[in-house]
Every structure is written in C-alpha cells, then in structure tokens.
Amino acid sequence: MSRTNFQELLDAGCHFGHLKRKWNPKMAPYIFMEKNGIHIIDLHKTVVKIDESAHVLKQIARSGRKILFVATKKQAKDIVSEKIQAIGMPYVTERWAGGMLTNFPTIRKAIKKMNVIDKMSTDGTFGTLSKRERLQVTRQRAKLEKNLGSIADMARLPAAIFVVDIQKEANAVKEANRLNIPVFAMVDTCCDPTLVDYVIPANDDAAKSISLIIDIVCKAINEGNEERKSEREKEEAVNAAVKKETAGGDVKDHSNKKIRARRNRKD
C-alpha cells in the first residue's frame, strides 16, 4: 500500500513546478504538462518515488545508521528541525559548513571543542576566567551550537543525506556525491535530477509540500527505528533465556558432582 496518494499530494500543492523558462530539460520525465507558463509535476510518479525512497530510508534506519537532513531555506528549516529532531536524526538548517562531509574529522574537532566548553562550565574552570574571556567563550559556544549542535551526536559519516532543495544545498550534494553517499531529495522542475540517487519530484518551495513529504519520510524512518528496537529486545530476551538455561544446567551438574562424591566416600 502506498504511503500517500494523488489527492493528498495535490492538496499540498506538490504538483506546482517552476516557470517553463526556468526548467531543466532533464526533469522532462517527471513533468505532466504546462499550464499558464508553469510546469505541472506528474504526481503519479511522485507517489511511486516517495514509496521507493521511504522503503530504502526505512532499511537504513533499521540498520542503525544515520541519515543527515539538509534544509537551510526559510520555508523548510523550521519544519525539518522540528520533525527530524523528534526521530533522533542529525540535521542542518542554519548554514552548510564547507567540508562537513569531505573534511569530517575537522568538524568532529569543532564538536569536541563545544563539549570541552560545556565541561568547563560544570567543573568550575569557567569561573576562573576573566569577564572578557568568559564572554568570548560563550559567544564561541553559541556559534558552534547554532551551526553544529544538531549534528553533535553524529560520530561518523551518515549513511545517506536527504535534501529539500538541491540547488540551494548544492555544496552538500557535491560533497555527498564525492564520497558516494546516497542522496535523497525533493527535486523541482528547475533542478538536475541526475545529481540525486533517489528523486522525489515535488514542489520544494511550498511549506505544505515540504511538510507532507518530510512527514512521510519521518514515519518510514520511525518504523525502521521501532523494528530495530523490537529486534534488539527479542535478541536480548533470547540471550537472557539461554544464559538462564546454561546457569541452571551448571547448578544441576554441580549437584550431581556432589552426590557422586558422597557415594565415593561411602564406598
């Protein structure tokens, strides 16, 4: 069963593309028609592509790997930060720091620095600094939090990235392509779909369109997380049962040894 349908996408305005003069010819397979100088996206194909992307994202989440969401445009950043934070995935909604993927060790150092500052405030070191130094450190911490706080738990490169607007997030897409990290993206009629591994043809400017697709994606990822949790609980239960059975066998074997020892003493 599909995760969405034609009418739901239509109501959210996912079908509105850009002006005909701004189109990218490579998006032709996903365009249904032109109306009043605006390209209309074929929502039947969008339904298929959403299902395909959701299935793969669910499997990634089920494996325990991370998916990095990138959306710095005004109409998408609040939607993404709210919904993605709820499912425990990393996201970037402020500014894409150059080298966030290709120079990941440096980014990890910056995150470590942020953690060091946090430690300073708890162990009393912060109180030994002068007023000016405290102000500088506080400002530095705020800047790091703004740019990197949402990826603080990302200990290694993500298994995939999800992008809302591949034109605006061109640097993120380039870095992912360079490292062969799969790219999932909402792709409008003005974009080049060949840069993306999993294309979701849709309006990437309207808040309703973005919200609907992010909701569907989050639901799929959450399902993957829940399945992983369930599998781990079953595995722990099996291990506990085996351990209990083994322990019981050891007790029984020990008792049998004691009985044999008594018999030998009598003899």
Textual characterization of the structure:
By secondary structure, the chain is an alpha/beta fold. The protein folds into two domains: 1-95 and 157-222, Rossmann fold (3-Layer(aba) Sandwich); 102-156, Helix Hairpins (Orthogonal Bundle). Helices cover 55% and strands 12% of the residues. The protein has seven helices and eight strands, in the order H-E-E-E-H-E-H-E-H-H-E-H-E-E-H. The chain has helices at 6-11, 43-62, 74-86, 104-123, 131-148, 170-178, 207-266, and strands spanning 16-19, 31-35, 38-41, 67-70, 91-92, 160-163, 183-187, 198-201. The strands form two sheets. It has a five-stranded parallel β-sheet with strand order 5-4-6-7-8, with helices on both faces. A hairpin with a 2-residue loop joins strand 2 and strand 3. Helix 2 (43-62) runs parallel beside helix 7 (207-266). The longest helix is centred in the C-terminal third of the chain and has 60 residues, at 207-266. The protein is flat.
Strand element count: 8
Radius of gyration: 26 Å
CATH topology of the largest domain: Rossmann fold
The number of domains = 2
Q: SS-based structural class?
A: alpha/beta
Strand arrangement, major sheet? 5-4-6-7-8
Shape assignment:
flat
- First-residue to last-residue Cα separation: 75 Å
Overall pLDDT, averaged? 90
Order of helices and strands: HEEEHEHEHHEHEEH
Biggest sheet descriptor: 5 strands, parallel
Name the beta content range: 5-15%
Give the class-level CATH name of the largest domain: Alpha Beta
The helix content, as a percent range, equals: 40-55%
How many individual helices?
7
Which CATH architecture of the largest domain is right?
3-Layer(aba) Sandwich
CATH homologous superfamily caption of the largest domain: Glucose-6-phosphate isomerase like protein, domain 1
pLDDT below 50 for ≥5 consecutive residues: which ranges?
Answer: none
